[in-house]
Amino acid sequence: MADRALRGMRLGTQSMETAANAELAARTEHHYDCPNGHIVTMPFSVEADVPLSWECHCGALALLRDGAQPEPKDVKTQRTHWDMLLERRTIPELEELLEERLQLLRAGRRG
Questions:
Q1: pLDDT (0 to 100) of residue 94
Q2: Is the pLDDT assigned to residue 22 strictly greater than 90?
Q3: What is the model's pLDDT at position 74?
Q4: Euclidean distance between CA atoms 68 and 64, whole angstroms
Q5: Is the dihedral of CA 101, 102, 107, 109 positive or negative?
Q6: What phi and psi values does residue 6 have, to the nearest 5 degrees?
Q7: Of all residues in the chain, what percent carry a pLDDT higher than 90?
Q8: Do 31 and 51 sit in the same domain of this protein?
């Protein structure tokens, strides 16, 4: 008899509330322009802080139309081995070391 009490009702999948007499929050639509030519339109609450960028469906970063551009991040260039070597020695010192090593190799001694 207990199994008949909720007959025809799907638990957890349907709401018993209706949309009648419900007031939706005030919204504004903001447009984001993708570098690949796509336009992303997102609705936001009037009270929400609108982000300057939004990820487009293609994966690129779309920027807010008529908005301030985000600050560019400082790009730190990667130092190579040659750059680090030049921090420790000058070109004439390196040429001198190269000549010493070549003389040792030519003499047949590896030290």
A1: 96
A2: no
A3: 85
A4: 8
A5: positive
A6: -110, 30
A7: 47
A8: yes
Q: Is 15 exposed, middle or buried (0-12, 13-18, 19+ CB in 10 A)?
A: exposed
- As beta bridge partners, residue 54 has 62
pLDDT tens by residue, 88-103 = 999 999 999 999 999 9
Residue with tokens 């003499």: 107
| Full domain range(s) for residue 56 | 26-70
* Partners of 29 in beta bridges: 43
User: How does strand 39-45 pair with strand 61-64?
Assistant: unpaired
Say which amino acid occupies 92: P
Residue 3 has pLDDT above 60, yes or no: no
Q: What's the chain's average pLDDT?
A: 84
Question: Does residue 21 form part of some domain?
Answer: no
Do 37 and 61 fall within a single domain?
yes
Q: Measured between alpha carbons, how far is 50 from 66 in angstroms, rounded to an integer?
A: 12
Residue 7 in domain = no
- Kindly state whether residues 35 and 61 are assigned to the same domain: yes
